Structure formats: C-alpha cells, structure tokens
Amino acid sequence: GAVVSQHPSWVICKSGTSVKIECRSLDFQATTMFWYRQFPKQSLMLMATSNEGSKATYEQGVEKDKFLINHASLTLSTLTVTSAHPEDSSFYICSATRGREGIGQYFGPGTRLTVT
Amino acid sequence: GENVEQHPSTLSVQEGDSAVIKCTYSDSASNYFPWYKQELGKGPQLIIDIRSNVGEKKDQRIAVTLNKTAKHFSLHITETQPEDSAVYFCAASIGNTPLVFGKGTRLSVIA
Q1: Which residues of chain A have a CB within 8 Å of the CB of B93?
Q2: Which terminus of chain A faces fewer neighbouring Cβ atoms within 10 Å, N or C?
Q3: pLDDT per 10-residue tile (average), chain A, 116 residues
C-alpha cells in the first residue's frame, strides 16, 4: 500500500505558458500532501504543504501566485506552474501522508519539467 | 528550526561490504526519522524509519540506529549489492510536521 502517482512524468513547455502537475494517492486517503522541487544533485526543497479543502501553506521564498496548489480531495492535489520560465525547469515531486497521525511520507515518482 | 546534517556526501564500497551513513539533527523535539533511497530520475522511496521511542530497527539487510542523547541516527546496509547504488536521504520531523532532509549520500557499490 501507500502508492502515490504523478502525471505527467515529464513535460516540455514554452516560456510563458502554464503547466499543471497532478499528484494522486492511489490506495489511501492522504491527510496532507507536500510539493517539493529538486535540482540536479541536490536535496529536496519543500515548496508547500497542502491539506484537503484548505489553502496551501507556502515556504518562504516560494511565490504562491506562480505555483498554484489545489487540493480538491483526499486523493488529489495539483500544482500549476504559471507563466513558466527556464529557471523553473526542475524535478517536481509530491508526497502524501496517511493515517490519523499523518506520520510517514510516501513520494510520487516525480515530474521533470523543462521550460524552453 | 530543525537542521539535518548528513555524512558522507559520497560513499564507495565493494560489493558484499557494509555501508554506513550518518545524520545529526538539531531539534531535540524531533521524533520521527525516515530514510529514503532515490534512484536516478525517480522519486524517493521510503526504505526504513524509526521513531524516538526506539533505539534500533532492522529490516533484512537494512538497519537504523538512533541516539537521542547525541541527536544522531545512522543507516547501516550490510552485504551490499550493486542495486543498492543510489542516493540516500535521511530526514527528521516532529510528529506530522514537514520533513527536513539531509543533503544526501551518493552510494556506489562496486562489483
């Protein structure tokens, strides 16, 4: 159990366009979902924490108007990168917690975004 | 806030040998310590975790030890195999707060 999927697995878009990435918990209801970005050979950087039905909490330095997060249900969260620029190119990974305690994060396979 | 230091940044071992990766944390209130394995181009995979009320946990070739007094925890992989080659991340959190990750260790197992 505890499978998290992401779609798409990779995407190439032109500068100025928007891209939506979906994160789903397939076999459990996620109490909380997290969005990370990861640059090559670096650790994961938390972007925001998302709870179903409420606004996401963004980390310092992350533009909430650029990285729109919607957590519509207990199994789906979406990240939309608006007006993407080449510097937004990165590996975006979501994770989800389950259970009452919400301890233990299960990660999706990641989405490779390339902005040309 | 919490700060997690991870060492070494790279580690090469011969197949069959053991590998040890160490992490220290700063916030004594942290009580959950997972380890993740990340292969190239993939998301991190939870391989083992430990909570602060336990000093050691083992799962086949993988074990984690926790020293709360010293605020450090370690990952031990025995009888390493080439498929163990990956980047390993430690992390720490207080309850269900967001994980704070170490910078990762690139493990290479040489056949």
Answers
A1: 103
A2: N
A3: 91 97 92 92 93 88 94 91 96 87 84 97
